[in-house]
Design a protein that fits this description.
16 strands, Dihydrodipicolinate Reductase, domain 2, single chain, alpha+beta, three-stranded mixed β-sheet
Length: 245
């Protein structure tokens, strides 16, 4: 968190435009789901379930955490507590360094607006948004969106071919630079996503007890090491450049 806070402070001080590689938030189906949610199509949002399976914390779940922030973080809502269960190895320095990329068994994220987020062990790359009067399901990693309302009516929208989330992220960044406008992800959302991930691992070290990101040690570190590689970066032999995934 210390590194993240330093980066975000530099971004704010320099009026720097910044984007982030959590590409689903830029894809059409996920944006449509957010518009329907904000339009009250399923009433008030109660729970978000991310069905990405048992997978690695820093290789894969940055996308999960960002979707929780995207859908739950309306009107300035922030993360209050996180619970997590993980399988991990190589815990060092009194529990402050995990030289590993933990496999997340499950996680529960509570927001201060009452919304609950869940990282499920279910497979399928689905996202389920449960509301007080309906449900939105984003299926097969954004290939379709299904709206089911209280009256039982189900409406499905299929994704159409368009530019990728990665390309859209860069287009949005370019537009923000040209027009001195905001990007499609706020810096604090990047920080919130990382806080969720680190809090999951921290909670797992204390047998799933709830962890508030506000009291998470800034020195707590997860290296994201999987074998000889590290999450979120690719270094070519002889190259000094690191490419964010």
């Amino acid at each position: 968190m210390k590194d993240c806070k330093q980066i975000l402070s530099a971004v704010a001080a320099g009026n720097i435009k910044m984007t982030y590689g959590t590409t689903r938030r830029f894809m059409r189906i996920y944006r449509l789901a957010r518009r329907l949610l904000r339009a009250g199509q399923i009433g008030g949002l109660v729970e978000i379930e991310i069905q990405f399976g048992r997978t690695l914390l820093l290789w894969n779940h940055p996308h999960s955490a960002d979707l929780l922030v995207l859908f739950a973080g309306t009107d300035g809502a922030r993360v209050s507590h996180v619970r997590g269960r993980c399988r991990m190895q190589r815990v060092e320095k009194g529990g402050l360094v995990i030289d590993d990329d933990p496999i997340v068994e499950e996680a529960l994220v509570e927001f201060d607006n009452g919304i609950t987020g869940r990282l499920s062990s279910k497979q399928g790359l689905h996202v389920v948004l449960n509301g007080t009067s309906g449900t939105l399901r984003i299926g097969d990693d954004g290939h379709w969106l299904e709206l089911q309302q209280r009256n039982g009516l189900i409406r499905r929208t299929m994704a159409r071919h368009s530019m990728s989330g990665t390309v859209k992220a860069f287009h949005g960044l370019a537009d923000a630079v040209r027009h001195d406008d905001k990007t499609s992800i706020a810096p604090h959302e990047i920080g919130d996503g990382l806080a969720i991930l680190l809090s999951i691992a921290r909670s797992a070290l204390v047998c799933g007890d709830p962890i508030s990101p506000d009291v998470l040690e800034e020195a707590f570190t997860v290296t994201g090491r999987y074998g000889t590689n590290y999450a979120a970066a690719d270094r070519k032999p002889g190259s000094r450049a690191m490419i964010r995934s």
